[in-house]
Automatic annotation (TrEMBL):
A UniProt-annotated Pfam family: Pectate_lyase_4
Keyword flag Secreted: yes
Organism placement in taxonomy: Bacteria, Bacillati, Actinomycetota, Actinomycetes, Micromonosporales
Spans annotated as Disordered: 356-442
InterPro entries according to UniProt: Galactose-bd-like_sf, Pec_lyase, Pectin_lyas_fold, Pectin_lyase_fold/virulence, PEL
Signal sequence range: 1-33
Compartment annotation: Secreted
Name listed for the protein in its UniProt record: Pectate lyase
Keyword vocabulary terms for this entry: Carbohydrate metabolism, Lyase, Polysaccharide degradation, Secreted, Signal
Record SMART domains: Amb_all
Length: 522
């Protein structure tokens, strides 16, 4: 890390859970799976409900958390785990079972779905032990503290991430949590909230991230561009060096958050990432938005933000701040309704609502905290319903005119199901098709020289029309997102010269089957 974060003395816990017993008190299935309902991108792709409708159990040790997962009828049986006390290495052991895949040194949510972890009573603290979400979906984590997770030194857990997601993760809502470290990489810490290797449809809301060298990231490297559709709102980033957050590709929506003492760089949009940044309050900070430490540019749409005592570096080399007068360089479409607090009240509303053990209060959209409902409710659409921008065009059923540039071009992809071929999408034959080996995947058209394209037509094979439910269209040369949407068909976007264009299927119902990936100059 370029700089060491000032150490903070964390308050001592009143009690420490002891022992590794796996006994659990079973509550009624009707108990609330979480307080309130998911917001932001976590509401897309089928939504995020966690363990709603399932059994509720109580856990005071990490072993009991693992046992609750392993005692389910299957890895997808809904469950809410109410946690109270301190979870640490001493009370967390591996538990085996057909419905789980756990480990001794981490809270492991691996190869599972439909789970809520909810802090209750006097609070839940995960002390030096991280929460790892891998190959999982429909997960809620609410009202917990995770602190001082290390990747080096002793003890280590979760690669140093407080909450880390990787490898085909879908629909995670993290809400009213406090994520803390006591320094940067040189002190053994890594990120507080990391998403890697095909993690999508995530919301982080009403949370505190503080005293860390690294706030968090989307994408582990400039080539890990399979992540995105992440919402950050009503969060406090405090005393963070950088990555608040770091975005590599994908789409992020960041609103109504308070950024205080960002020491080196804040929202770092890179490698074609697109960030909508609105009604945030940036205070006593440096380089809070831009592209930093790389020449792979990212993009942003800004509105309504307040910059209070923010300093900006001069542009040079791989330092490209958006300020001192940030302006938009893209337009980002947001596919859900949301309420916006005015930026001038953000520090106060975030202070009253964000973090664990604050009563899980939220804002009413008018700078006033409101108490939670006792059971999940269907969110009421707020007054802000964004108009789709050019990044999410509405497909039109009309056939594009002109020459299909895919005929005679090359093609490749991320995977292919048995009996299919990448070349089937550029042969002009609707009876042949490509399918990914799973429910998501990428298919590309490529040329030897730069080719100007402004429209594509994704034609699903007979019997599979409508199977594609969410997608991104990428400029594979740069990683830039040209368009996003929820149904296949004709897609238009600003004319772009490129050598390779990629259709990235991020969600589906049934097996996707793409018969033709047609490309047109106009």
């Amino acid at each position: 890390m370029r700089r060491t974060v000032a150490l903070r003395i964390l308050a001592a816990l009143a009690t420490t859970a002891t022992g590794a017993a796996v006994c659990m008190a079973v509550m009624t299935p009707q108990a609330s799976a979480a307080v309130g309902s998911a917001t932001g991108f976590a509401t897309r792709n089928g939504g995020t409900t966690g363990g709603a409708g399932g059994q509720t159990v109580r856990a005071t040790t990490g072993t009991q958390i693992h046992a609750a997962l392993c005692n389910r009828a299957s890895s997808s049986t809904p469950i809410t785990i109410q946690v109270e006390g301190t979870i640490n290495h001493g009370n967390t052991t591996k538990v085996s079972g057909s419905s789980c895949n756990t480990a001794a040194d981490v809270i492991e949510l691996k190869q599972i779905s439909n789970v809520t972890i909810l802090g209750v009573g006097n609070g839940a603290t995960f002390d030096q032990i991280g929460i790892h979400i891998r190959e999982a979906s429909n997960i809620i984590i609410q009202n917990v503290t995770v602190r001082n997770v290390k990747k080096s030194g002793s003890p280590t857990s979760n690669g140093g991430d407080a909450i880390g997601m990787e490898a085909n993760v879908r629909n995670v809502w993290v809400d009213h949590v406090t994520l803390e470290a006591s320094g940067g990489e040189s002190q053994g810490f890594d990120g507080l909230f990391d998403m890697k290797n095909n993690t999508q449809y995530v919301t982080l809301s009403y949370s505190i991230l503080r005293n860390s060298g690294r706030g968090g990231l989307i994408g582990s490297s400039e080539s890990d561009l399979s992540n995105g559709f992440v919402t950050f709102h009503h969060n406090l980033y405090e005393n963070i060096d950088s990555r608040a957050p770091l975005l590599r590709g994908g789409v992020a929506h960041i609103f109504n958050s308070h950024f205080s003492r960002i020491n080196e760089s804040g929202i770092n949009s890179r490698a074609g990432a697109q960030a909508k940044v609105e009604n945030n309050y940036f205070q006593n900070a440096k380089d809070v938005l831009g592209t930093f430490y790389t020449d792979a540019a990212g993009y942003w749409q800004v509105s309504g933000n307040i910059f209070d005592n923010v300093t900006w570096s001069s542009r040079s080399g791989d330092t490209n701040p958006a300020g001192p007068n940030p302006t938009s360089n893209t337009s980002v479409s947001i596919p859900y309704s949301y309420r916006l607090d005015p930026a001038n009240c953000v520090p106060d509303i975030v202070r009253q609502t964000a973090g664990a053990n604050k009563g899980i209060r939220t804002s009413n959209g008018s700078c006033t905290p409101t108490n939670p409902t006792s059971n999940p409710t269907t969110p009421t659409p707020g007054p802000t319903t964004p108009t789709p921008g050019p990044t999410s065009p509405t497909p039109t059923p009309s056939q594009p005119s002109g020459t299909n540039l895919s005929i005679g071009a090359g093609s490749d992809g991320s995977s292919k199901a048995s009996g299919t071929s990448y070349g089937d999408v550029r042969d002009g034959n609707m009876s042949t098709a490509w399918s990914p080996s799973g429910s998501t995947g990428q298919i590309s058209i490529k040329w030897d020289t730069a080719t100007r394209v402004s429209r594509v037509n994704i034609r699903e094979a007979s019997g599979a029309v409508g199977n594609v439910r969410s997608w991104r269209l990428l400029n594979h040369d740069t990683g830039a997102v040209l368009a996003t949407g929820s149904t296949a068909g004709v897609i238009t976007f600003p004319a772009t010269s490129l050598r390779k264009i990629t259709f990235d299927i991020t969600g589906s119902s049934g097996t996707p089957r793409i018969a033709e990936f047609e490309t047109y100059a106009g």
